[in-house]
Design brief:
Beta-Lactamase, homodimer, DNA-binding, elongated, disordered N terminus, alpha+beta, five-stranded antiparallel β-sheet
DNA sequence: AAACACGTTCGGTATTACCGAACAGTGTTC
DNA sequence: GAACACTGTTCGGTAATACCGAACGTGTTT
């Protein structure tokens, strides 16, 4: 008897498509060397032959590619195109990129821009630092608001009641010993953030890593998103935080200006 | 009696998944404002209710999002994440990015890197010019080799027989009046390219646009890909082409060094 | 209020997605 | 060198379901 454990309701969905997208998710979460059909089958709740048919279909469309013989399934080129289009379809992406480039040059760090997705920051654009240091900073995923500088920068500009509601949804799990875990601490931090003009994540999300973030706006109400810059925690950085903060703030302000200022001058 | 006119074979594929991916393709090709269900139904070879079920499934997984009421379907956030992971899973992407950043700063133009996908260039990484000029340069799509500087740069480094085979596949359609359309012209151009060290696309792909490209290598055999830089054709640019060419060449050489030189020094 | 658009819901049926088992390669072990 | 263990691939058969067409709401236009 087959059942769909991930499907509570009985609404209008196509099961096999769900399976296919689950399969892609498994490949995403898997090692970059890819997954074999056998490994995929173990992860899927389907038979080997069905998994095979799904994989073949996805390969046909370029969503996956089977490298080597026997094939190991990795993400395909078509997804690069889709992701590029998807992020371009968010108008913010194009607006942010040049600002981020400048910010990365100024600070020498990796900088990113997130949009406000119902209180959660979702990073949509990233410019790596000119230096050799790289961070694992995936795009397109919802981050936890209370341990990221972008999240806190946005929260600081929202009414207290809204903040309470947002963190109630996600909880306040500690990602490191330095994470903020109570609403009281958070409010205090947000107060400081508001006065200071930018948010600081001091090893609250990853040990050894700090972030500085500032929100930007579109219509004056809730923040439209935030920019942030990320670096490794070092003694020398501590003294520069004020300088970095001002750069980040300036970048956020520039984006706000671009968003609110000239609304469609060209067409 | 229903039949699938686009389906000749009877191989192991999942039809509804194909339909779903086709639906995504239509959204990609559609306007950035999105498509309504009715518009999608017109494009798909399915009934309205079936298209509806597919769209809902894709929205559930974040591949699409329905904005507004009535909903217009646009590409979803999940694709940003997938695309980011997909391009990161190509080791070249990370290697190329810092080189491209430097190249863009040097030249003041948009620069890109393509991998060699069976003779076709597929651009996987892009760094926009610091200036205000933007080009429509989508990532992840197979470009035509004979009208792009990246393509010609790669072809120039392949044996003549291989070149003949590749252009036989794609044909030599003219994209502009200045496009190369015969194999003889192409060979001559490739000879010059080889001697010069970099390829030039002088309004052969788009009028008013020039590109300069150079190939990079991994194992000494066929080129692994190419970098290129793109600008608008102007008088002053003509004199600088040699300077730009050398920058592009240097960037390609740097990538070659990174690829062939230190193979896994760290782990 | 009638007409039209749109998205959504509903039964019913024929299609097909799915399974389990058999087949075919490849490298390893006895 | 045969048996094994492990891949990915192919094959019928059946129960599930993807699909269709029509009906239903809801909002906008005549």
């Amino acid at each position: 008897m087959t059942k769909k454990p991930t499907d509570g309701g009985r609404s209008y969905r196509v099961g096999s498509v769900s399976h296919a997208l689950d399969l892609i998710d498994h490949v995403v979460s898997g090692p970059s060397s890819g997954l074999s059909l056998a490994e995929l089958t173990a992860l899927m709740e389907l038979s080997k032959s069905s998994t095979y048919a799904l994989a073949r279909t996805l390969v046909d469309h370029g969503y996956l590619r089977g490298v080597g013989q026997p094939p190991r399934y990795q993400l395909g080129m078509a997804l690069v195109r889709l992701g590029d289009r998807a992020s371009s379809s968010i108008p913010l992406t194009d607006i942010c990129r040049p600002v981020l480039v400048k910010l990365s040059q100024e600070t020498g760090l990796t900088s990113r821009a997130a949009i406000n997705d119902n209180g959660y920051p979702v990073f949509i654009s990233r410019v790596d630092s000119p230096g050799p240091i790289r961070f694992y900073t995936p795009l397109g995923v919802r981050e936890v608001p209370h341990t990221s500088s972008a999240g806190k920068a946005m929260l600081a500009m929202m009414p207290a009641e809204r903040v309470r509601q947002i963190v109630a949804e996600t909880g306040m799990a500690a990602r490191t010993p330095k994470s903020i875990t109570t609403i009281a601490e958070l409010s205090a931090d947000l107060d400081i953030t508001r006065k200071r003009g930018f948010a600081i994540d001091d090893e609250e999300d990853d040990l050894g890593v700090f972030c500085i973030g500032a929100a930007f706006f579109r219509h004056g109400s809730e923040p439209a998103g935030a920019v942030s810059t990320t670096g490794i925690k070092q003694d020398r950085a501590a003294r520069q935080i004020d300088v970095l903060g001002r750069s980040v703030q300036a970048a956020a302000d520039e984006i706000t200006q671009l968003l609110t200022g000239l609304e469609r001058t060209d067409f």
